[in-house]
């Protein structure tokens, strides 16, 4: 066995995913652990996504707190599995993205990797995005190479979409280089809207969205945002699709809509930005496999199937991969790539000048 831990704390800021992964042959998920972020840390991380007073020190303090949460989770997971630190080759720790501005040459993930190595006694690989950006790439998305490793088929043209806070698509065409790019909002705008109007973290199963009506005029207007027509390489995040983007769009729309109909329209926006990008970039695609938290949103899954009638729309579970743990597994795999000196980026995806080994190692 070659045991790696992948740690992901995604843009939706719901919590920390830890995946114990065997990377001796095809990646296998052996065990997993989820820890919600303590509310104070969650709101501080969210605040740090924008500039504010004393942010350098606050970023460092929040990074340490994040690493402590991860170390606690890792210790618990290892104890449950009767493993010790010595059994683990390395931790691949994505960290928490607080800024993503590849056009200005940076993407910032905080997570105190030195402290995490110290607290766990395990080597940590972190800072996966900066080398790709230094080589002219977007630094994101990085999971397409892992999707290719797990899901590429000799015959079927497949696509994967990870629907977390934002959504990113991977296109797997037999005999061709893997393609991939961010499509736009995933759950982030829906989460923000339901939080504002109903005080809930997310729209469980998409029930609220399903009870409203999609306003097609508003949907068309939202889809006119130039990001959607742009072809890859492209990536996005909270800097672009934020609640103020939605408020500006609603102001431009003018007509007052029921909150529930806006939720229905946001759900349709996520489905359509994915389906449009997929059809534009790989019209031969036969199957769409969904992973990330959005795979649990029944209304979103139904809208995706409606928008893509010629394709089979499934979650990755249909191929035996739990949709909730793929991102964390991807960072375990990327950590091994770094340790082995193998490139983790794919220039056709990120737009980097070439293949690069991603990440920095903090030895145990
Ligand atoms: N049962 C459910 N019904 C509807 N939506 C759900 C459900 N469970 C999770 N979600 C959505 O999935 C989100 C979390 O998804 P995920 O864990 O993939 O995000 P992430 O790791 O933060 O994302 P990213 O890929 O952007 O880094 C939640 O914020 C919520 O919107
Ligand atoms: C900068 C950043 O954290 N980007 C995330 C985010 O969440 C989804 C999408 O935007 C994707 O680009 C990326 O995550 C996955 C793990 C990736 O790099 O493939």
TrEMBL record:
GO molecular function: ATP binding; kinase activity; phosphotransferase activity, alcohol group as acceptor
HAMAP family reported for this sequence: AnhMurNAc_kinase
Keyword ATP-binding: yes
Keyword Transmembrane appears in the UniProt entry: no
Biological source species: Atopomonas hussainii
A biological process term (GO) from this entry: 1,6-anhydro-N-acetyl-beta-muramic acid catabolic process
Designated name of the protein: Anhydro-N-acetylmuramic acid kinase
Ligand binding (ATP): 10-17
């Amino acid at each position: 066995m070659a045991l790696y831990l992948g740690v992901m704390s995604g843009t939706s800021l719901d919590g920390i995913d830890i995946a114990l992964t065997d990377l001796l042959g095809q990646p296998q998920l052996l065990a997993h652990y989820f820890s919600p972020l303590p509310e104070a840390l969650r709101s501080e991380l969210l605040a740090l996504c924008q500039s504010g007073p004393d942010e350098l020190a606050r970023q460092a303090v929040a990074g340490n707190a994040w690493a402590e949460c991860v170390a606690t989770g890792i210790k618990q997971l290892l104890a449950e599995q009767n493993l010790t630190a010595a059994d683990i080759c390395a931790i691949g720790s994505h960290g928490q993205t607080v800024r993503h501005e590849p056009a200005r040459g940076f993407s910032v993930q905080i997570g105190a990797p030195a402290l995490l190595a110290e607290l766990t006694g395990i080597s940590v690989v972190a800072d996966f995005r900066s080398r790709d950006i230094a080589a002219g790439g977007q630094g994101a998305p990085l999971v397409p190479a892992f999707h290719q490793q797990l899901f590429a088929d000799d015959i079927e043209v497949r696509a994967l979409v990870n629907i977390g806070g934002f959504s990113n698509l991977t296109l797997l065409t037999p005999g061709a280089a893997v393609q991939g790019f961010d499509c736009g909002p995933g759950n982030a705008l829906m989460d923000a809207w339901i939080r504002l109007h109903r005080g809930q973290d997310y729209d469980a199963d998409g029930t609220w969205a399903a009870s409203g009506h999609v306003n097609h005029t508003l949907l068309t207007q939202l889809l006119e945002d130039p990001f959607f027509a742009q072809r890859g390489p492209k990536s996005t995040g909270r800097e672009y699709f934020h609640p103020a983007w939605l408020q500006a769009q609603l102001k431009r729309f003018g007509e007052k809509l029921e909150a529930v109909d806006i939720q229905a329209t946001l759900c349709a926006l996520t489905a359509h930005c994915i389906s449009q990008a997929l059809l534009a970039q790989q019209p031969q695609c036969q199957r769409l496999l969904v992973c990330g938290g959005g795979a649990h949103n029944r209304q979103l899954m139904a809208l995706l199937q409606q928008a893509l009638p010629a394709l089979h729309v499934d979650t990755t579970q249909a191929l035996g991969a739990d949709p909730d743990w793929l991102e964390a597994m991807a960072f375990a795999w990327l950590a091994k790539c770094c340790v082995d000196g193998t490139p983790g980026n794919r220039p056709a995806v990120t737009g980097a000048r070439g293949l690069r080994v991603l990440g920095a190692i903090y030895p145990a």
